[in-house]
Amino acid sequence: MAKYYFIFLFTALFVFIADQNIKFLFVSGLYWESKCISLTLTFNKGVAFSMLSFLGEYLKYIQAVLIGGITIYILSHKEIVKRYAFSAGMLIGAAFSNLFDRFLHGGVVDFVYWHCGFDFAVFNIADVLIDLSVVLILYTHYKYSKKSEI
């Protein structure tokens, strides 16, 4: 069982450190532009698509409680850690990275801007990893539910 806790914690820590290092490059002034994608620094004061930005400073404390609660829930349920160690670790690491940005910079560091054919919201690597982790969790859940039917 310790193996699964290690996978969870190592993945979370790796994602957090890697994401923070990438964001540091953009906070330090990295900029790149092409026909379809621009890598440019913005600070998102809300959540996805800047929703809930009206909450201001309260948003980071609300998120801290939610992310802390989810982390405690995951770690206190061995069957969740065992089944979803990697994907849950990725989710928590990315969530903590975005939360850390709120406390350090006053908003989440976003830098990937897609503008080829249509304008899309500016996002970061942690946002992609959060989405990917949810897909992996759903896939794993589906795979295990199919096995239990047999």
Can you tell me about this structure?
- The chain is mostly helical.
- It has one domain (2-27, 36-144).
- It has four helices and three strands.
- It has helices at 2-27, 58-75, 78-105, 125-149; strands at residues 32-33, 37-44, 108-114.
- Strands 1-2-3 form a three-stranded antiparallel beta sheet.
- Helix 3 (78-105) runs antiparallel to helix 4 (125-149).
- The longest helix has 28 residues, at 78-105.
- The model has no long low-confidence stretch (mean pLDDT 93).
Low-confidence stretches: none
Tell me how many strands there are. Answer: 3
Question: How much is the average pLDDT?
Answer: 93
Please, how many domains?
A: 1
What sequence of helices (H) and strands (E) makes up the elements?
HEEHHEH
Structural class: mainly alpha
Query: Measured on Cα atoms, how large is the radius of gyration?
Result: 17 Å
Looking across the biggest beta sheet, what order are the strands in?
A: 1-2-3
Tell me the strand percentage band.
5-15%
Largest sheet: 3 strands, antiparallel
Portion of residues within helices: 55-70%
Shape: globular
